[in-house]
């Protein structure tokens, strides 16, 4: 075997997953068809739950150090949401270009002796009962690689997904938009802070600027001209100048376009996240509009859910069915994101009836219950997995905030000393209340809460049979 797991794709999802696998002790290889990381800003935020997960591993600090801003709260179709109603140390979004997140995650991999094999493109994929064979092309010519498992984190046009023949149902884009990283002449009228964008429906061309650094801005715009152009049509300087003028008048004087691309609100989800020994994660498993800023976060959270489970399988202690919980848990989460992004898209249609619906939605979002529902959805803080073991408990299946999981192992809180001795190396234990315990998975979700006498089944389900003394 060339590796225990081969990850195809070195975006945020693939790099987060590779780091998780390395932490679990797996031999991991990372391939990416691009010769170099894209310099375009792409996604610009870490939602609160993603920040919590990275912080629990001790990986957030080098990322946050390179952040441009912290963005208070979030939004639903531009309707402001308050994240401070949740018990979290991150009631805000970390504003940071995607490339900087990737750089930090790749640097950690490099420190562990795991380089990304760039310019390496997947050509064919086959699997059998014992492993996966990938035929790839690149600087070394065509060659084959062998691993016990493989993961496709290679984007919305995933070659891994196509090789597997996994259906990708949904709908094509209905709205076409453009994004450009631009350099503008200094002007005091230009925005200097990151703000929730104004997404009020408009029949004319609309756009908004997000300041980056050194007079550089992220500019997102849409209008009738964009609707008539294909996704691969070049973005011209004249097109950007016109959109900038419509949105900001003579305050926005274009000096230079660094990078530009088009995107749509296409919405699709893979039918299966697992096919034998091959898994899909991130945009390879789901695509949707960027409404609410959820895409990067959804993929990175896929990685945290899958990584420790694959690591357990490689280590040999994963229980039957553990790998299947990846699809069972993450597929509904992504389906919910696809649903909410499509709903947000409707609220941005310039139609009188939609304006009426938007006004009522704004009133509902301003109520405590409405805000909590939407803010929990967008931030990822209200994700709750179905946990079949143990008695019903308010914490069961929910995240446990402010928990340190640097080891990548599970964590048992409470109970007498020695209660988890059979699972040493898989579960860390902090003794406490002898009659009350919390069992936390490596991804920070509570998989048991209750009396220690009922704990054994949950330990065995999530962390395998106890080791023989």
What integer is the average pLDDT?
95
Shape: globular
CATH C-level name of the largest domain: Alpha Beta
Question: Mind telling me the C-alpha Rg?
Answer: 23 Å
Tell me the major beta sheet: 8 strands, mixed
Total number of helices: 12
Helix proportion: 25-40%
Uncertain residue ranges: none
Main structural class: alpha+beta
- What is the total number of structural domains? 3
Total number of β-strand segments? 24
Give the name of the CATH superfamily of the largest domain.
FAD/NAD(P)-binding domain
Roughly what fraction of the amino acids lie in strands?
15-25%
- Spatial separation of the terminal alpha carbons: 31 Å
* CATH topology value of the largest domain: FAD/NAD(P)-binding domain
In short, what is this structure?
The protein has 469 residues and is of the alpha+beta class.
Summarize the helices and strands and which ones pair or pack.
Layout: E1 3-8, H1 12-23, E2 28-32, E3 45-46, H2 48-57, H3 60-64, E4 69-72, E5 74-76, E6 79-81, E7 92-95, H4 98-111, E8 116-118, E9 121-127, E10 132-137, E11 143-152, H5 159-164, E12 170-171, E13 176-184, E14 206-211, E15 216-222, H6 224-227, H7 237-248, E16 254-264, E17 267-269, E18 274-275, E19 278-280, E20 286-287, H8 295-315, H9 324-346, H10 352-365, H11 368-379, E21 410-414, E22 427-430, E23 437-440, E24 446-450, H12 456-463
Parallel strand pairs: 1-2, 1-11, 2-8, 11-19, 21-22
Antiparallel strand pairs: 3-7, 4-7, 5-6, 9-10, 10-11, 12-17, 13-15, 13-16, 14-15, 17-20, 18-19, 21-23, 23-24
Helix pairs in contact: 1-4, 1-8, 8-9
């Amino acid at each position: 075997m060339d590796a225990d797991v081969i990850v195809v794709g070195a975006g945020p999802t693939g790099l987060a997953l590779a780091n998780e696998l390395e932490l679990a002790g797996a031999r991991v290889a990372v391939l990416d068809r691009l010769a170099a990381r894209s310099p375009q800003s792409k996604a610009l935020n870490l939602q609160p739950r993603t920040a919590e997960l990275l912080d629990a591993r001790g990986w957030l600090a080098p990322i946050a150090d390179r952040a441009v801003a912290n963005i208070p709260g979030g939004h639903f179709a531009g309707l402001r949401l308050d994240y401070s109603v949740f018990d979290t140390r991150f009631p805000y979004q970390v504003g940071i270009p995607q490339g900087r997140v990737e750089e930090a995650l790749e640097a950690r991999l490099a420190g562990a002796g795991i380089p990304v094999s760039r310019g390496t493109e997947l050509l064919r994929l086959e699997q059998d009962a014992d492993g996966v064979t990938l035929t790839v092309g690149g600087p070394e010519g065509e060659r084959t690689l062998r691993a016990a498992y493989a993961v496709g984190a290679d984007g919305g046009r995933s070659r891994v997904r196509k090789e597997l023949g996994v259906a990708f149902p949904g709908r094509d884009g209905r709205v076409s938009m453009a994004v450009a990283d631009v350099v503008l002449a200094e002007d005091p009228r230009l925005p200097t802070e990151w703000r929730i964008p104004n997404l009020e429906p408009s029949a004319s061309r609309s756009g908004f600027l997000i300041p980056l650094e050194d007079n550089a801005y992220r500019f997102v715009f849409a209008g009738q001209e964009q609707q008539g152009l294909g996704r691969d049509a070049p973005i011209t300087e004249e097109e950007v100048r016109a959109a900038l003028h419509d949105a900001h008048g003579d305050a926005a004087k274009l000096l230079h376009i660094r990078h530009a691309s088009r995107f749509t609100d296409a919405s699709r989800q893979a039918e299966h996240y697992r096919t034998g020994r091959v898994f899909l994660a991130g945009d390879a498993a789901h695509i949707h509009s960027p409404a609410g800023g959820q895409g990067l976060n959804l993929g990175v959270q896929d990685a945290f859910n899958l990584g420790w489970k694959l690591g357990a399988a490689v280590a040999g202690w994963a229980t039957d069915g553990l790998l299947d919980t990846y699809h069972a848990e993450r597929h509904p989460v992504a389906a919910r994101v696809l649903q909410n992004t499509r709903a947000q898209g409707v609220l941005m249609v310039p139609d009188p009836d939609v304006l009426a619906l938007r006004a009522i939605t704004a009133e509902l979002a301003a109520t405590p219950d409405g805000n909590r529902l939407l803010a929990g959805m967008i931030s990822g803080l209200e994700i709750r997995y179905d946990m079949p073991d143990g008695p019903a408990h308010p914490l069961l299946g929910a995240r446990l905030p402010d928990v340190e999981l640097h080891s990548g192992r599970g964590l048992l809180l409470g109970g007498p000393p020695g209660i988890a001795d059979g699972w040493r190396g898989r579960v860390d234990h902090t003794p406490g209340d002898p009659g009350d315990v919390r069992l936390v998975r490596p991804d920070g979700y509570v998989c048991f809460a209750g009396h220690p006498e009922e704990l054994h089944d949950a330990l065995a389900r999530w962390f395998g049979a106890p080791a023989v003394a």
